[in-house]
Amino acid sequence: RAATRGLASLTLASLTINTIGKRSVRRARPALDQVPIVRRLGRQPITTSFPSGHAASAAAFAAGVALESPAWGAAVAPVAASVALSRVYTGVHFPSDVLAGAALGAGAAFAVRALVPTRAGSVPPA
To answer: Is the pLDDT of residue 31 over 80?
Structure first.
């Protein structure tokens, strides 16, 4: 259930960010002048920078999992944080892109929870 909730959250976040988010802000990516060559990606992204889709997807999955199973959520949270931080480290996003993406991803997880309550939140039949 936790993985299914995480995937549903990731799907909602990804669809929203890549169709509405990136097209409405159209922020250019950071210049790579200050990023050492060894930290740069082999292939640079061609989409706009704001918000970070990777950070949104990672945060959505982790938050979705955590809403269903806090223990599993704690296990996947460091991976999600690593994905988000790597976007700044490699120079493809500004920190604000990543923070906004992570916030939108977490919001997607809560939206999924509003549509499909967690097992703990559902009321047992009388």
So the answer is: no
